[in-house]
Design brief:
Elements: E1 3-5, E2 8-13, H1 15-21, E3 30-32, H2 48-60, H3 66-77, E4 88-92, E5 95-99, H4 109-127, E6 131-136, H5 140-149, E7 155-162, H6 168-175, E8 182-187, H7 191-202, H8 205-210, E9 212-215, H9 221-236, E10 243-248, H10 253-263, E11 268-275, H11 280-287, E12 289-291, H12 311-318, H13 323-336, E13 338-340, H14 343-352, E14 353-357, H15 360-374, H16 380-389, E15 398-402, H17 410-417, H18 425-428, E16 438-440, H19 444-453
Parallel strand pairs: 5-15, 6-7, 6-9, 7-8, 8-16, 10-11, 10-15, 11-14
Antiparallel strand pairs: 1-2, 1-3, 4-5, 12-13
Helix pairs in contact: 2-3, 2-9, 3-4, 4-5, 4-9, 5-6, 9-10, 15-16, 15-17
The structure holds pyridoxal-5'-phosphate.
Residues 107, 109, 140, 218, 248-254, 302-303, 381, 403-404 line the site of pyridoxal-5'-phosphate.
């Protein structure tokens, strides 16, 4: 399997190269040059780990042996606290919730990040060099990455989060980690600023000459690849002809993984994107208008994103792998702050996706509604999806993703229900621990010198 870039469709990179680079040098995102088709019938009655092996193997074939891959997968999901790993909860007739918060940091990011940590260690044995991981987080990617890479030999981890714009639990999950290879940086800005700094540093020849920078954000294809697994897993537990998913979205990573699952053979009817009041994805799907907007703070901070990096992968696909066109669109978007897609592209997007922007008020009301009606407590990200699940066609199976444990976002939970969520003991412990982080101005240079000082 070779990989091309959304900005250069002639590229033929190996899996190991794209794993360690994350972002292509031309500024584009990596994608497999073709989609391996999977026969869903071969996956029935298999364990989560066996399903994972079947899905990932074609994407890494020739570079990680099947035996090694299986070993990596087995050790990855050992750390998860539910026997089903990603259990599917039936909440009503034809309505399901896929719970993705049984990893060590209680959000769906663990499902791919723990795998990535083990895959990196395995592939580094052959490379034996020093890696610098650089990532931006809206809250959950950071703790998942820190947990996956803490204490690992020859890997330093720099995580940028927007200062005072993540929940207290999210911040403490990152900053109470005192391992020497972990650096938390709070940027005086929003998530889009953090993501821009990361992208600029990836294209900075000076810093790239001094260390090999690696991306662990969902711009890294390996993350999306590992998220495909739970979409198949959920479907296999329902056994219907076709299902639809509702996916709370920010950077367009998780929902693009669902589309990748569809591309390799999962019978998905519709992917319904839920956004919060940061609704740029909703504007694109509904009206074909991609426009730069200010980020607002909402109850679902991990979705407080207006520039969804992974959407470039969808643009590349919708324009039939025309990387010249992608270059032109991204150039125009960065100069004018907007780009308008034509009717044929809009109808292509709408054949795959549907979208709804969910207000703050609706998010809180939804948490309260599900608690009262079903005694089901959701976190505010999950609630954006559940507000859509309330009103879908009752004759067709819908699976809504539960992205995080409610205890990570107790302010919203308390506002909605009058009391806090029960807190897992791992999260209770962090409140008294010492924190370690550096606050920096919203400037790429400031981050660059911090990294260079600590190589
Ligand atoms: C990351 C995250 C999202 C958004 O996922 P994307 O892949 O960025 O679209 C939603 N909810 C939670 C809890 C998250 O951590």
């Amino acid at each position: 399997m070779k990989y091309l870039s959304t900005r250069n469709n002639n590229l033929k990179e190996s899996f190991t190269n794209i794993l360690f680079q994350g972002l292509s040098k031309d500024g584009g995102l990596y994608l497999p040059e073709s989609w391996p088709l999977l026969d869903i019938n071969t996956l029935r009655d298999k364990s989560y780990e066996e399903v994972a092996l079947n899905i990932i193997n074609p994407f890494v074939a020739n570079e990680v042996s099947e035996e090694d891959l299986y070993e990596i997968i087995i050790s990855t999901y050992k750390n998860f606290s539910h026997s089903k790993i990603a259990p599917l909860y039936k909440i009503d007739n034809n309505k399901y919730i896929l719970e993705l918060f049984y990893g060590p940091t209680f959000a769906f990011k663990d499902y791919a990040m723990q795998f990535l940590g083990n895959l990196f260690s395995h592939c580094m044995q052959k490379k034996a060099n020093q890696l610098t991981i650089l990532g931006a987080t809206s809250g959950d990617t950071g703790s998942a990455a820190i947990n996956a890479f803490k204490g690992k030999k020859n890997i330093n981890v720099f995580i940028l989060h927007p200062h005072n714009k993540v929940s207290e639990v999210q911040r403490k999950q990152m900053t109470t980690n005192l391992d020497e290879n972990i650096f938390n940086v709070a940027i005086e800005g929003n998530f889009d600023d953090c993501q821009r700094i990361v992208k600029e540093l990836f294209l900075d020849k000076d810093i790239q000459g001094k260390t090999s920078l690696t991306a662990i954000n969902s711009i890294n294809w390996a993350r999306l690849m590992a998220q495909i697994i739970y979409y198949f897993w959920a479907y296999l537990q329902i056994e219907d002809k076709e299902v639809s998913f509702i996916v709370p979205s920010g950077n367009f990573g998780n929902v693009f993984s669902a589309h990748a699952a569809q591309n390799i053979g999962l019978p998905i009817k519709k992917l319904h994107i839920a956004t919060n009041e940061n609704d740029s994805l909703n504007q694109i799907i509904k009206h074909g208008l991609m426009r730069l907007k200010e980020v607002k703070q909402t109850y679902s901070p991990s979705m407080d994103i207006q520039i969804s990096s992974n959407f470039e992968r969808q643009i590349f696909e919708s324009f039939g792998h025309d990387s010249e066109k992608v270059n032109q669109i991204m150039r125009e978007y960065s100069i004018k702050g907007e780009y308008e897609f034509d009717k044929s592209i809009i109808s292509n997007l709408q054949s795959i996706y549907e979208s709804t922007a969910v207000s703050n008020t609706n998010t809180i009301e939804t948490i309260s509604y599900y608690k009262k009606k079903y005694d089901y407590l959701s976190d505010p990200h999950t609630a954006t999806g559940l507000s859509i699940l309330k009103n879908v066609d009752p004759d067709h199976p819908y699976i809504s993703l539960a992205c995080a444990h409610p205890a990570k976002f107790n302010d919203a939970v308390e506002k909605a229900t009058g009391s806090k969520s029960l807190t897992p003991k791992e999260l209770e412990n962090i409140f008294d621990k010492k924190e370690k982080m550096t606050i920096l101005n919203n400037e790429t240079e400031a981050v660059k010198s911090l990294i260079l000082k600590n190589l």
